[in-house]
Amino acid sequence: MDRAALFDVDGTLVDSNHLHVVAWWEALRQGGHRVPTHAVHRAIGLPGERLLDHLLGEDHDHGDDDRLSAAHDTLYGTCFERLQAFDRAADLLRALAGDGWRIVLVTSAKDRELTALRRALDADDAVTATATADDVEEGKPAPDPIELALSLVDVGPDRAVFVGDSVWDMKAARRAHVVPVGLLCGGIPSADLTGAGADTVHDDPRDLLAHLADSPFAAVPAAPDKAGAH
C-alpha cells in the first residue's frame, strides 16, 4: 500500500502568509472593519467564509462577505510575482516522492491562487494530486480536505503524514486521524502548533528535509513490494 505525504501550501511550502495578512487587512479596512494584523495572521489558513466568521464573529453582516473576499483576492493577486518558495521546499517534495510517497497538496487556496503557488514552488513533477477547500463542504479545521486528499491517492490515514503551518492544519489532521507535522515558517509559535496536535515541529522545509530520518515520516514503512521483499 502506498504512503501519502500531505502538504499545506501557503506558509508551509511557499512564503505567502504575510501577503495574505496584508491583503485581508486592507480588504477589511476598506470594508470599514478595524482588525489588528496579528489577529488576521492567526486566521490565515481558514477558508474565506470561516476566516471572516473567525475575525468578525459568526453574527456579523454576511452580506459583505463576497465583497470582502473579492477585495482580498484582487489585492493578493497583485502579489503573485512576489511569491517565493521556502528554501529546499521543492527538494523536500522530490525527496519524499523519490522514496515512494504520494505527494498531495491540501490547501484553502482558490484555483488562480494555487496556480501561482505551484509556479513559485516549481515542483509539479513531484506532486500526485491536489485537494482544495472548493472541493469539499467544509475546509480546515474540518477533516474534509485531508480525507479527500487520502481518497485521491487511495491511502489510509495510518499511512499518511500531514505537514502544515497553522493550528487549523494541525486540528484538521488530528480529526482525520493523520499524524501532523508543524512548520514554524508560517509564523505561528511552536507551543500553539503543539497544543493543536502537532506530533513534531520543525523550522521550515529545509529543517524537515534534514531530519526526515527522525520525523514521523520514518515511522511509516514502505509497503513490502516497495521495500524489495521477495
Description:
The chain has ten helices and six strands; from the N terminus they run βαααααβαβαβαβαβα. It has two domains: 153 residues, HAD superfamily/HAD-like (Rossmann fold), CATH 3.40.50.1000; 65 residues, DNA polymerase, domain 1 (Orthogonal Bundle). It is α/β, with parallel strands linked by helices. Strands 3-2-1-4-5-6 form a six-stranded parallel β-sheet, with helices on both faces. 44% of the residues are buried. The two termini are 16 Å apart. Helix 1 packs across helix 2. The longest helix has 14 residues. Strand 4, helix 8 and strand 5 form a beta-alpha-beta unit.
Mean pLDDT: 95
CATH homologous superfamily (4th level) name of the largest domain? HAD superfamily/HAD-like
Which geometry do the CA atoms define? globular
The number of helical segments is 10
Summarize the amount of helix as a percent range.
40-55%
CATH architecture of the largest domain: 3-Layer(aba) Sandwich
Helices and strands, in order, run as EHHHHHEHEHEHEHEH
Show the helix and strand layout.
Blueprint (H helix, E strand, L loop, with lengths): L2 E5 L9 H14 L6 H7 L4 H9 L8 H13 L11 H10 L2 E7 L3 H11 L5 E6 L11 H10 L6 E5 L2 H9 L3 E5 L6 H6 L4 E3 L2 H6 L20
Parallel strand pairs: 1-2, 1-4, 2-3, 4-5, 5-6
Helix pairs in contact: 1-2, 1-4
